[in-house]
């Protein structure tokens, strides 16, 4: 399917992404923030839904999101032990814009997703602070880096360097064109399972990794992946849940089996309309697409999710982290293959 001009989640108009990257010695981590639109999501919420493929995770905010079907903060990504710090930063940021939160207004639902970057990063240092969340939020833009940046700095995929990846696809429905964008925090997979465009690339790369004295891990799958989908198609929360489920198709194409120790989650949101916080404010009604017309969007989700995972691998650079641990990038490993 055709991609947008940036081939990124930000091809969906109004969506921006920012990073704060910590990369010094044993500290290899960070924060990535997705802003769903340019305004205040607490005042102008967006329809959203999440799907849990394997719930080995410590994310914050999914319970209320699933109940109410709305997104009311930016989406934050970080490492597992920094979820609390980032959620606190999100709450403080929302209060600074809406001083009555928790007083005359309801409390805010922070939304933080995580993966465990403890192989490369000294995760016990809990180096991520509120200032890093704010830095990522303030730097959000349509054009953003991918690979070993932000929350992706310390992540591993298929025994190689993983991280942030993004892609987009256009889908035509009834003469109209809609954009679907994906962003992943990729931290999953075992090298022998790595599949690229249907080819068993991991089986070809395994001997090369062994030759470099970096054997593929033999431990069970202990990684995770967070998959975020944005679209400008007019969909309600129930339909967005159906889109989020199709992330599993793209994930499976790359070689994932949703291992026991892997936290695999997807969230989808639509920018086609906003839902005002105050009930007295007018709710602009937007007719949702009929369910029978959603197949092109399903295909776009699967395609863009797969491409985002691949892009994370190719955009990553080799990273050295705590206790001498190293993750080679796919590009560095491939360069060592015999011609």
Automatic annotation (TrEMBL):
InterPro entries named among the record's database cross-references: ArgJ-like_dom_sf, Peptidase_S58_DmpA
Domain of life: Bacteria
SUPFAM superfamilies per UniProt: DmpA/ArgJ-like (SSF56266)
CDD domains reported for this sequence: DmpA
Similarity comment: Belongs to the peptidase S58 family.
Alphabetical list of PANTHER family matching this protein: BLR5678 PROTEIN, D-AMINOPEPTIDASE
Name of the molecule in the record: Peptidase S58 family protein
Origin organism lineage: Bacteria, Pseudomonadati, Pseudomonadota, Betaproteobacteria, Burkholderiales
């Amino acid at each position: 399917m055709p991609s947008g001009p940036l081939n990124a989640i930000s091809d969906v108009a109004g969506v921006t992404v920012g990073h704060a990257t910590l990369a010094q010695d044993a500290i290899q981590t960070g924060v990535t923030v997705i802003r769903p639109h340019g305004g205040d999501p607490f005042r102008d919420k967006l329809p959203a839904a999440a799907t849990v493929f394997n719930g080995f995770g410590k994310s914050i905010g999914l319970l209320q999101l699933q109940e109410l079907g709305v997104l009311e903060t930016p989406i934050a990504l970080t490492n597992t032990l920094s979820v609390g710090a980032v959620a606190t930063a999100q709450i403080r940021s929302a209060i600074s814009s809406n001083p009555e939160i928790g007083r005359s207004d309801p409390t805010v639902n922070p939304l933080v997703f995580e993966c465990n970057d403890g192989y490369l990063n000294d995760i016990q240092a809990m180096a991520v602070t509120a200032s890093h969340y704010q830095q990522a939020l303030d730097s959000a833009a349509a054009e953003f880096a991918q690979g070993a940046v932000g929350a992706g700095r310390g992540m591993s995929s298929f025994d190689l360097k993983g991280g942030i990846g993004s892609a987009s696809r256009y889908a035509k429905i009834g003469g109209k064109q809609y954009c679907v964008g994906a962003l992943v925090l990729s931290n999953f997979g075992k090298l022998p399972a790595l599949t690229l465009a249907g080819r068993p690339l991991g089986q070809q790369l395994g001997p090369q990794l062994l030759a470099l004295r970096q054997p593929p891990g033999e431990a069970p799958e202990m990684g995770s992946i967070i998959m975020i989908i944005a679209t400008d198609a007019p969909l309600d929360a129930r339909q967005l849940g159906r889109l989020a489920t199709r992330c599993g198709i793209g994930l499976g194409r790359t070689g994932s089996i949703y291992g026991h120790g892997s936290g695999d989650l997807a969230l989808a949101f639509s920018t086609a309309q906003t839902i005002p916080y105050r009930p007295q404010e007018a709710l602009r009604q937007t007719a949702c697409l009929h369910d029978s017309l959603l197949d092109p969007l399903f295909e776009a989700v699967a395609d863009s999710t797969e491409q985002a995972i691949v892009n994370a691998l190719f955009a990553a650079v080799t990273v050295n982290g705590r206790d001498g641990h190293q993750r080679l990038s796919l590009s560095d490993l491939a360069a060592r293959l015999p011609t």
